Amino acid sequence: MIAHPFEYYRPKTVQEAVWAYCEAAKNGTPQYYGGGTEIITMARMDSIRPTAVIDLKGIPELSVLKTDGGRLIAGGCVTLSALHETNAFPLLGATASRIADHTNQVRITLGGNLSGTIIYREAVLPLLLADATLVLCGPQGERRVPIAEGFQERLRRGQDEFLAQVAVEPKFLQAPWVHVKKVAVEKIGYPLVTVAAMKVDGQMRIAVSGYCEFPFRSAEMERTMNDTGLSARARAEQMAGQAPAGVLADLGAQADFRTKVFIDTVEDTINTLEGE
Known about the structure:
alpha+beta; single chain
């Protein structure tokens, strides 16, 4: 149960959603709402107290999941389970299938995973590899942003903006790929390391979650990954020292163990993609 009162809006268009947010912001702290898993949990714990909730699920553009001229268009309110079941982008579907359990996958949305406070944000990994385009909407209108600019450690959006759609070009959708998620105990859980990799135009790409306090794609790591003058093991060991921040240490694992898991996973990933 959420103990405090709030206004609820169910807009049918992007424009109505932005208007509702701006109106509610005049006298309070509104929040956009997609799947709602995180907002509901945090509101029940009284760690957030939104005065208004703008439910985006009634906006058709935000629930679209289709290919248009071979290009994937996925709305911010598409659920993780839909991404997996549709399989229009197999790497994204595989990644989505390992986030949380099925009960929550039918509620967690693509936009919610990318925008949430949980640091792993694993659904972004295939999008980083595929140079996706983000469509952000707010009072200033629509912005189309390359993911390298729009996602840096977290989704870079204005407080009054929301993620409407992502777009992925055709050549990335069926490229050879690898997805590996290593967890401490159970199949489902927060990652020790999640690696997503892809081979595009003969070059390997890699994106990682769980190794640092934020998900990332590293150009430096990719240069090392594609250095065929080194063994796969040597490349993986060198890449372990090229993280953009310190190695994460938490209750799941200390940094040295995470590093070992990363090296083993990356070595296997290189061997798999080089065998394609």
